[in-house]
Amino acid sequence: MSKTKQIVPKGDFGYLQAEKKRRIIITVLLFAAPLIIFFTALIYFKTRLTVWTVIAVVGCLPACKSLVSLIMIFRCKPVEPEIYRQINAHSGNLTMAYEMFMTFYEKSASIDAFAICGNVVVGFSSDPKIDTAFMEQECQKILRGNGFKATVKIFTRLNAFLERLDSMNEHRESLEEGIKFRPDEKYPELSRNELIKHTILALCL
């Protein structure tokens, strides 16, 4: 009996590995089509000077775009399984997102995890090159621009992040108390925390 392939949603653990495989397949197929056209026409007409060569060249444009996308996803660092295990053990009832490569015009960085509760958004990054102050400021700016009065804090020490998760779980009700929320017409099924997660994921590859 064949196993059905399950798509790993963006923001879930294992997303980057699955996305790399998916983009490799798409890129190969996109390059294969124009190459088949070019070489078939070359063999048949015995010259490159045909309209089929033009079609093949134009057909390479989506493949090149896909290749750039593939190169970008290979820059992303998956979360170490042990780190994920520890974070997941402390996540409790918080809204979580994993394996993100957050990009802005000036800088980018890998974020292992984000936890969201009310107006508190905390993240952990094992990226040694991350500029935490910049990423916090830009992420917070985007969230507030979308109507979420959230504060963003990114930790680079795992133990400190895990302690913060425990504290957020302990005070979860008070963190969400008194926050007015009107469901988004585009995503009526999403809670406020999930909408914040959705906004953060839009900033990531």
Set down the secondary structure blueprint.
Layout: H1 15-45, H2 51-74, H3 81-91, E1 95-103, E2 108-117, E3 120-124, H4 132-145, E4 151-155, H5 158-170, H6 172-176, H7 192-202
Parallel strand pairs: 3-4
Antiparallel strand pairs: 1-2, 2-3
How many individual β-strands? 4
Task: Note the gap between the termini.
Answer: 34 Å
Mind telling me the C-alpha Rg? Answer: 22 Å
For the report, how would you describe the main beta sheet?
4 strands, mixed
Keywords:
single chain, alpha+beta, 14% strand, elongated, 205 residues, four-stranded mixed β-sheet
Structural commentary:
The protein is of the alpha+beta class and about 200 residues long. The chain has 2 domains: about 15-75; about 80-200, no CATH class. The protein has 7 helices and 4 strands. A 4-stranded mixed sheet has the order 1-2-3-4. Strand 3, helix 4 and strand 4 form a beta-alpha-beta unit. It starts with 14 loop residues before the first helix and ends with a helix. The mean pLDDT is about 95.
Summarize the structure.
By secondary structure, this protein is α+β, with helices and mostly antiparallel strands. The protein contains seven helices and four strands; from the N terminus they run αααβββαβααα.
